[in-house]
């Protein structure tokens, strides 16, 4: 649950575009955002006359923030997840931006195109034109566009830490698609006015975009991480799905372990969603479904209610494979 | 206490350090840091492009040395290839990559001169180096005309290497003949024969006509090296040094001497030839005979002619062209006339050049021609002129791989002798119409060691044939040709035979050659081949979903081919296949010749192209896959075991068939053309020698004109062709639990899905009684969803499971069934090892995400050490879409070594690549040529040969002696 403190100090929710714009437009000088777990939110507090009590809470919260500044740790609660971030701000030149797109589990398309082009580089021999890769088009409503961190004509310098220089458009395309579940692109933005200015860092969490409108088209907005290590995300990047189609009687379906929380850990990759749906369908009613499980079962010509085999433990995530 | 603590700490640090070090030894060292492994790598791997098989693409010139018995072929890309006895071959490449226009061997020397279309001359020689001959370019030279003259003045049109071996006569477009010294290419100004000098000798009435014009032909007198016969294109023929003169009024094409030097013969633009006497008194001779062989109606030019004498008095008159213009003007013919016999050999493509092999013994009184060698644009044809009926000779090399376009290839290493002999015997029955003459071009000596094993390369062709090539050694030659056409009813008219011509047909054309690029029916095209070398079972699959299982039969037989349809869509509804129809089968028994005979036909429905095929000869099962699904067929009981539809419901494209793909194909064609154009531009720029930056700028400008855009999108299940079955694999492994192993079938799709089926194959004694059963055991979805290109199971010792029947034939150790098996799934983007039977990821190697390249071909190869005989290991040989070859170790998936092999623009080259089991490979460098390469230090098949200069014995070598005398006289 995301809320903000309005000019009067009232805690108000941000849950649609309108109150979001209201929050942004009324913010001055700072927009105070409150993030709470869904189950901990006391909805009765919103907008009511609890100003004084809330003020106190605000103060303590803010103090907390200040104290933790050196190692701020933005956790990833299960209720929401990041879709994009600017990373490695401290080690990159100010003219560059490293953007991470979390495609994994997101229903939105990545939604951008790249093209060949020419780039001007400063060399010992003066300015030199060299071939480069550029973002050529954004798909409206796509993940790339919605982050506001990438724009048409941004030059792509690196893909997941690998330099693009000397590679063909097709190679870069393949690299991006191969990394699409966790794409980190370093760009040189065409518009250099929104660069992060390090000297005027406002909080410990890193610099802020000086363009306040650029990244505020949709929720959730980009948040800023620092010193990102690619290995951190290694574990959830590739969850191959294995469906056991064995028919031994000792494997009794145990669907009770298919709780929403265990599913949410693999968090909505489209296939697992479908699987979940199919599993539920098959177990509850044995109804027709066009999912792969059902096809599998029907091809074996057995009763779906008895053939569905889920080993003990239901869905478990052992790093790279999810076993149903 | 503090001190103690410190010591304890130190101790722990040391221990830790030691442990880390110990572990690092094996695991954590990056490749390149382990000196032992590095040395081993050098002993195992080595990349070499060893030999080019097949027929040179776009040949442009032919040369022959009767002295060395070597033939030379030049190509439009500037390559020059020399061939002698089987196994004797050399390749040279002109730096300029310009078309080779002419090739001339220097008489009695291991040297030859090439003329390129940029008017440069190149001197090549065969030199011995560490026991083997090598072809080297010695000199290059560009003739310059006198200052101020037009460029045509120095444009070389005819080259005559003089028998003195000291000079070259160079006829030019201006009519002047320059003489250059060898090997320095210094112009001997005083010996230049200018057209003015010639004209001085010419009677007034001819002088009034145009000047001599370009020199069409230069021929040395066979007996008197001082006399040079010069033919000018306008029809003037001059015997220089004697300055006798012959004048015809037809545009001259070529000249040729008779052996005794008493006569010469000229051929002309109007399709006529003329015989001229060489008389001592007459300054202007009159023709002895003037003939238009295919007259009286207008004929095409005769571009080359030979007059070959024989002992029995009747000459062989052999000429190229001369066909009646109106009715046969489009034929590529060479006519041979010998007494009353006359045949016009009708070639399948344009004739580049030809030569006659005749008695080269200088003392011999007659030519006594034995064979005619014809280089046509698409094939080499040798005609035996000694045997009755002039049959063709089966060439041991330079095979036209592309007589019908190659659609796929399959390599089988180490063929058992029994199967080898049976294939050869089947093939020999097909080759009865060939001459028994030994290969007449027999120069040089092959000193390469005998091939280590018998290897077969099978090529599938567009016309529904499979060709079996002996790929053991340097000479790739055809053993046997299998046609699948007979099984089907096609539109082709069976009576359409060119050879059945009446006796009294005129001209007496006879079709020769096999090049036939026109397929009767594209659905017949072969897409996948699998040969079991132990059982002789062959499975062949084609474009219209047909799968044929065949057995080798040493006798011709007539039998019915059982026919089964496999509906891969099963109960999927609402789809309409818009592609081609399935092939119609022939009812009733079909006559098959000796060799592989089909006994069962499975036709997939919809009849989409078969994209994967696997045969298990021990279980008698064949698995096949298309873009819709896959099926398993029991070819013992002739029963379909199961089919599995892999189609995603939203994938309309796959259902509609190939027609709907035309659009995207067009688009990709356009893009590749654009790419080619761009690379051309860049190469031209490079040649122009402009500055580096301007070159880059040029390329960039080109790019700006044609911006290409690529969509970045994660693959999803809804993408097109996700159901396309890319690979099928049989394995006896632990699929269900770790205590029992069972036969299994694995399938990988374009959408990154792997299906595993557990099979129950009845024991041999009940094999016909009980059905084969299959149950789906597993389905793995790779989250990166890249196409699965290969599946492999490693046994308990990390060795890939042996081929079916390999163990039964005592050729392989039985697989380890004690330790746990592992599954290797290779997608276009990653290599992943999983445990079995519980499929959990153990290890992976990312390729695309880190390198930007994708796997195109992968195969397990066995590499032996060149140092010790007892060490060998299995690795993965991988070809990427960038044309790189990588070797990746098993089972730890460490990149060992990488070599650039194929240009990344060469899409067909990459697509055609096949690896062998022992670290060699083949890929097409043109439609007609395979490049062979080797990754192994141990298995290397490359030409190694010696060309010795034959002894020139002076006592019975009058010709040579006279040359020597002349030479010495000249030097005086």
TrEMBL record, chain A:
The lineage of its organism: Eukaryota, Metazoa, Chordata, Craniata, Vertebrata. Residues 200-220 are annotated as: Disordered. SUPFAM superfamilies: CAD & PB1 domains, PDZ domain-like. Residues 98-191 form the PDZ domain. Residues 1-38 form the PB1 domain. This is Par-6 family cell polarity regulator gamma. Pfam families: PDZ. GO terms for cellular component: apical plasma membrane; cell cortex; nucleus. One of its GO terms (biological process) is regulation of cellular localization. InterPro entries: PAR6_homolog (IPR051741), PB1-like (IPR053793), PDZ (IPR001478), PDZ_sf (IPR036034). Residues 200-215 have a biased composition (Low complexity).
From TrEMBL, chain B:
The keyword Transmembrane helix does not apply. GO terms for cellular component: cortical actin cytoskeleton; plasma membrane. One of its GO terms (biological process) is exocytosis. Keywords: Cell cycle, Cell division, Cytoplasm, Exocytosis, Phosphoprotein, Repeat, WD repeat. It is found in: Cytoplasm. InterPro entries: Lethal2_giant, LLGL2, WD40/YVTN_repeat-like_dom_sf, WD40_repeat_dom_sf, WD40_rpt. One of its GO terms (molecular function) is myosin II binding. The keyword Cytoplasm applies. It comes from the Eukaryota. Residues 292-391 form the Lethal giant larvae homologue domain. Pfam families: LLGL, WD40. WD repeats lie at residues 93-134, 452-470. Interacts with GPSM2/LGN, PRKCI/aPKC and PARD6B/Par-6. The complex is enhanced during mitosis. Interacts with DCAF1. Belongs to the WD repeat L(2)GL family. Part of a complex with GPSM2/LGN, PRKCI/aPKC and PARD6B/Par-6, which may ensure the correct organization and orientation of bipolar spindles for normal cell division. This complex plays roles in the initial phase of the establishment of epithelial cell polarity. This is LLGL scribble cell polarity complex component 2.
């Amino acid at each position: 649950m995301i809320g903000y403190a309005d000019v009067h100090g009232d805690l108000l929710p941000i849950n649609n575009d309108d109150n979001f714009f209201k929050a942004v437009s009324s913010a001055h000088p700072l927009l105070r955002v409150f993030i709470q777990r869904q189950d901990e939110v006391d909805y009765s507090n919103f907008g009511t006359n609890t100003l004084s009590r809330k003020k106190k809470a605000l103060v303590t919260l803010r103090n907390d923030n200040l104290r933790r500044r050196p190692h701020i740790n933005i956790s990833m609660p299960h209720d929401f997840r990041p879709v994009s971030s600017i990373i490695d701000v401290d080690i990159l030149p100010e003219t560059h931006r490293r953007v991470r797109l979390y495609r994994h589990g997101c229903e939105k398309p990545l939604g951008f195109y790249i093209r060949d082009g020419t780039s001007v580089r400063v060399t010992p021999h003066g300015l030199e034109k060299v071939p480069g890769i550029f973002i050529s088009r954004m798909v409206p409503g796509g993940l790339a566009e919605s982050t506001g961190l990438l724009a048409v004509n941004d030059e792509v310098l690196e893909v997941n830490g690998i330099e693009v220089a000397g590679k063909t458009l097709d190679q870069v395309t393949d690299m991006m698609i191969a990394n699409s579940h966790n794409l980190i692109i370093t760009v040189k933005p065409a518009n250099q006015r929104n660069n992060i200015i390090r000297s005027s860092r406002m909080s410990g969490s890193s610099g802020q975009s000086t363009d306040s409108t650029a990244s505020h088209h949709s929720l959730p907005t980009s948040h800023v991480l620092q010193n990102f290590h690619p290995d951190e995300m290694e574990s959830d990047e590739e969850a191959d799905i294995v469906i056991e189609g064995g028919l031994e009687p000792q494997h009794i379906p145990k669907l009770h372990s298919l709780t929403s929380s265990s599913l949410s850990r693999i968090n909505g990759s489209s296939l697992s969603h479908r699987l979940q749906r199919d599993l539920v369908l098959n177990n509850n009613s044995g109804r027709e479904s066009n999912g792969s499980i059902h096809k599998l079962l029907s091809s074996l010509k057995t009763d779906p209610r008895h053939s569905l085999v889920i080993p003990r433990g239901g869905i478990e995530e052992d790093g790279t494979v999810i076993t149903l | 206490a503090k001190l103690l603590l410190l010591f304890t700490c130190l101790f722990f640090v040391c221990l830790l350090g030691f442990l880390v070090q110990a572990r690092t030894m094996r695991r954590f060292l990056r490749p390149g840091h382990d000196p032992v492994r590095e040395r081993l790598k050098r002993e195992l791997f080595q990349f070499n492009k060893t030999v080019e098989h097949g027929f040179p693409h776009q040949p442009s010139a032919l040369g022959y040395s009767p002295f060395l018995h070597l033939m030379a072929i030049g190509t439009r890309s500037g390559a020059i290839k020399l061939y002698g006895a089987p196994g004797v071959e050399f390749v040279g490449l002109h730096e300029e990559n310009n078309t080779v226009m002419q090739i001339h061997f220097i008489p009695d020397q291991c040297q030859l001169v090439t003329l390129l279309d940029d008017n440069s001359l190149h001197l090549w020689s065969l030199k011995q180096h560490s026991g083997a001959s090598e072809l080297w370019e010695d000199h290059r030279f560009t003739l310059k005309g006198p200052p101020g003259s037009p460029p045509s003045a120095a444009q070389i049109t005819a080259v005559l290497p003089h028998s003195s071996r000291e000079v070259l006569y160079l006829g030019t477009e201006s009519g002047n003949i320059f003489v250059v010294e060898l090997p320095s290419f210094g112009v001997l100004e005083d010996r230049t024969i200018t057209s003015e000098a010639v004209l001085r000798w010419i009677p007034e009435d001819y002088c009034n006509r145009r000047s001599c014009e370009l020199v069409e032909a230069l021929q040395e007198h066979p007996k008197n090296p001082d006399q040079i016969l010069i033919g000018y294109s306008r029809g003037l023929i001059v015997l220089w040094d004697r300055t006798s003169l012959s004048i015809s009024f037809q545009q001259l094409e070529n000249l040729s001497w008779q052996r005794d030097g008493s006569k010469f013969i000229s051929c002309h633009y109007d399709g006529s030839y003329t015989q001229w006497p060489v008389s001592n008194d007459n300054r202007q001779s009159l023709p002895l005979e003037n003939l238009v062989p295919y007259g009286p109606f207008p004929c095409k030019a005769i571009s080359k002619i030979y007059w070959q004498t024989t002992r029995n008095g009747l000459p062989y008159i052999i000429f190229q062209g001369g066909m009646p213009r109106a009715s046969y003007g489009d034929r590529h013919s060479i006519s041979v006339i010998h007494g009353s016999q006359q045949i016009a050999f009708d070639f399948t493509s344009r004739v580049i050049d030809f030569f006659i092999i005749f008695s080269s013994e200088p003392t011999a009184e007659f030519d006594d021609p034995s064979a005619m060698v014809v280089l046509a644009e698409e094939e080499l044809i040798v005609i035996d002129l000694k045997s009755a009926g002039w049959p063709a000779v089966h060439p041991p090399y330079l095979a036209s791989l592309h007589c019908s376009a190659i659609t796929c290839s399959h390599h089988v290493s180490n063929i058992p002798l029994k199967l080898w002999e049976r294939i050869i015997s089947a093939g020999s029955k097909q080759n009865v119409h060939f001459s028994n003459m030994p290969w007449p071009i027999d120069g040089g000596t092959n000193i390469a060691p005998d091939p280590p094993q018998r290897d077969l390369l099978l090529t599938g062709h567009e016309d529904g044939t499979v060709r079996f090539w002996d790929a053991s050694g340097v000479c790739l030659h055809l053993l046997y040709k299998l046609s699948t056409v007979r099984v089907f009813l096609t539109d082709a008219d069976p009576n359409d035979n060119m050879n059945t011509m009446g006796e009294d047909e005129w001209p007496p054309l006879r079709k020769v050659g096999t090049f036939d690029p026109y397929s009767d029916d594209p659905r017949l095209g072969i897409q996948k081949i699998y040969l079991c070398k132990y059982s002789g079972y062959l499975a062949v699959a084609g474009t219209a979903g047909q799968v044929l299982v065949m057995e080798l039969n040493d006798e011709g037989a007539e039998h019915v081919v059982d026919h089964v349809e496999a509906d891969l869509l099963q109960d999927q509804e609402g789809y309409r296949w818009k592609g081609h129809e399935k092939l119609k089968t022939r009812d009733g028994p079909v006559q098959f010749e000796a060799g592989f005979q089909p006994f069962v036909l499975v036709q997939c429905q919809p009849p989409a192209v078969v994209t994967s095929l696997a045969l298990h000869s021990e279980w008698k099962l064949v698995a096949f896959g298309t873009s819709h699904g896959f099926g398993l067929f029991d070819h013992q009981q002739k029963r379909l075991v199961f089919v599995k539809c892999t189609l995603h419901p939203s994938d309309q494209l796959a259902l509609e068939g190939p027609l709907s793909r035309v659009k995207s194909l067009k688009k990709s064609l356009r893009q590749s053309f654009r790419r080619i154009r761009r690379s051309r531009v860049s190469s031209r720029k490079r040649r122009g020698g402009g500055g580096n930056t301007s070159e880059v700028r040029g390329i960039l400008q080109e790019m700006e004109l044609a911006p290409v855009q690529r969509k970045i999108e994660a693959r999803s299940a809804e993408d097109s062709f996700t159901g396309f079955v890319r690979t099928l694999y049989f394995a006896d492994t632990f699929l269900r639990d770790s205590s029992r192993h069972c036969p299994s079938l694995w399938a990988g799709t374009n959408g990154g899905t792997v299906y595993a089926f557990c099979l129950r194959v009845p024991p041999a004694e009940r094999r016909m009684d009980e059905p084969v059963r299959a149950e789906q055991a597993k389905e793995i979805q790779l989250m990166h969803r890249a196409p699965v290109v290969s599946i492999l199971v490693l046994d308990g010792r990390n060795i890939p499971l042996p081929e079916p029947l390999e163990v039964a034939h005592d050729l392989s150790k039985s697989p380890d069934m004690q330790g746990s098996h592992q599954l290797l799934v290779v997608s276009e983007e990653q290599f992943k090892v999983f445990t079995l039977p519980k499929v959990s990821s153990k290890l992976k190697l990312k390729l695309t995400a880190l390198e930007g390249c994708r796997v195109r071909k992968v195969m397990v190869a066995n590499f032996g050490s060149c140092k010790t005989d007892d060490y060998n290991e299995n690795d993965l040989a991988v070809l990427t879409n960038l044309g790189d070859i990588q070797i990746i170790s098993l089972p730890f998936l460490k990149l060992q070594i990488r070599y650039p092999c194929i240009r990344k623009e060469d899409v067909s080259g990459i697509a055609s690549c096949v690896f062998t089991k022992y670290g060699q490979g083949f890929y097409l460098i043109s439609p007609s040529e395979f490049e062979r390469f080797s990754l192994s230090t141990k298995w290397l098949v490359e030409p190694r040969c010696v060309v010795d200069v034959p002894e020139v014995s002076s006592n019975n070598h009058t010709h040579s002696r006279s040359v020597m005398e002349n030479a010495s006289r000249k030097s005086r």
